[in-house]
Design goal:
The protein is an alpha+beta fold. 16% of the residues lie in helices and 44% in strands. It contains 5 helices and 19 strands.
């Protein structure tokens, strides 16, 4: 063996060993969340899951495809009241039974899975702590648990179970400050990648039964305007994330402020009072969301978010008009 080869082999062995050691290093909680985010945005998957919220239990079927046509998704109920949601490049369309409104349905009004801004959820000043738990088998796959725990009572926490090889979210649990479960979503059967039936994207429901989901933000709103109303105080970690002002159709002036702690968000609406507005006052619960309403002069204030009631009340009671 030449001297060059004798020098090469130890170096090659060392490089191989170093690569093996690096591959064996466990991922951190933040790295697991980053992999989950990539999987949910870039992977195609299809499966059946059970969604539990309070006393309500539903079995749903989802097909989510990402390809050269963009993102296409169809979600429909297998049992219980009819419900179907289609998301694609043309927007969001849905069929809801029993007179339920879009705002009352978390699978329509928001994303099915928790939207976790990764840079905020585990930053140095985050009001959440992250922890990695053990593994378990779910829907025929091995899953790893990641917990997102609030540091105070102003926000909820999550437990996420991520598919071990891809990071795809197999289960999530929303819990309150007393560690009581508020909602749970868990796959019972799941396919990934090329093992997906694309024909399940096609709905058998007549097109005229679908309603299109539009943003509440009215035409003519301006992100550049300064708020005329805002809370005098906020829970720790919350800050203004967005602001819009404009006019609702035939309903007068409208202001919408969104406050976020990086994971949870709270909307503050300031509107002109309507004739029927007197019925909406005080605290209310809509599923896992909390709402607080009050009247200030001719204005009606509504604060709503998937947060504890103490949070919307804390913010809502301090909303006031700014000096000119």
């Amino acid at each position: 063996m030449t001297r060059t080869l004798r020098q090469f082999f130890p170096a090659a062995i060392l490089a191989t060993f170093s690569t093996w050691v690096a591959a064996e290093q466990p991922l951190t909680a933040s790295e697991l969340l980053e992999r989950m985010s990539s999987a949910m945005n870039q992977m195609s998957y299809q499966g059946t899951f059970v969604y539990m919220r309070g006393n309500s239990v539903e079995t749903m079927r989802i097909t989510h495809i990402v390809d050269e046509n963009g993102v296409r998704e169809r979600l429909y109920s297998i049992d219980g009241p009819q419900r179907e949601i289609i998301r694609d490049k043309d927007g969001v369309r849905c069929v809801l039974a029993d007179g339920q409104t879009v705002a009352e349905d978390p699978l329509v009004a928001g994303p099915i899975y928790p939207d976790i801004p990764l840079g905020e959820a585990h930053g140095a000043d985050s009001p959440y702590s992250l922890a990695i738990g053990g593994k378990a088998r779910m829907a025929g796959h091995v899953a790893r648990r990641v917990s997102i725990r609030p540091v105070d009572g102003f926000r909820y926490g999550y437990e996420l179970w991520l598919e071990d090889s891809t990071g795809l979210l197999l289960k999530w649990v929303l819990f309150n400050e007393r560690r009581e479960t508020l909602a749970r979503l868990m796959f019972t059967e799941l396919r990934m990648g090329g093992d997906i039936r694309e024909d399940e994207l096609h709905s058998t429901t007549p097109a005229e039964l679908f309603q299109r989901v539009d943003s509440r933000t009215p035409e003519g709103t301006s992100d550049q305007a300064e708020p005329q109303w805002q809370p005098a105080r906020l829970p720790p970690g919350f800050r203004l994330a967005s602001y819009n002002r404009g006019k609702n159709k035939g309903e007068g002036v409208f202001e919408h402020l969104v406050y976020s702690d990086g994971l949870a968000s709270v909307s503050v609406y300031i509107e002109d009072q309507h004739e029927d507005a007197s019925a909406a006052h005080g605290l209310n619960r809509i599923g896992t969301a909390s709402a607080f309403s009050k009247h200030v002069g001719a204005k009606h204030i509504t604060v709503i978010g998937e947060v504890p009631v103490i949070t919307v009340k804390f913010i809502g009671e301090s909303v006031r008009q700014l000096p000119p």
